[in-house]
Task: structure prediction
Amino acid sequence: MNIKAIKTEEDYNQALQRLELIFQAPIDSKEGDEADVLSILIEKYEDEHYPIEAPDPIEAIKFRMEQMGMTNKDLAQVIGYKSRVSEIFSRKRKLTLKMIQNLHDKLKIPYESLLTNY
Result:
């Protein structure tokens, strides 16, 4: 096992290649342990160099609606009047605290996605 810190893009690519080779290794083996450590190092490097921004709340709502096969009429039952849906999607109206709570409770959209500025 030759594990080292991932500091460069080359190190990162080598770590990904190695992980691909040993990914299916048994958990209680040397290679399984190596895969665990490499996964942690790769994740740390990706978090620092390839951060993923949270989607804006409107996009998060639209994405969740698509996943659930919902229409704007269905969403109106969650957040209030149908006209509210149009105003929110056109960004003329902000989400209220009650809307955010309902979206989280009923559609399971994380608060972090609903509370960002848009």
User: Anything to note?
Assistant: The two ends are 47 Å apart (CA to CA).
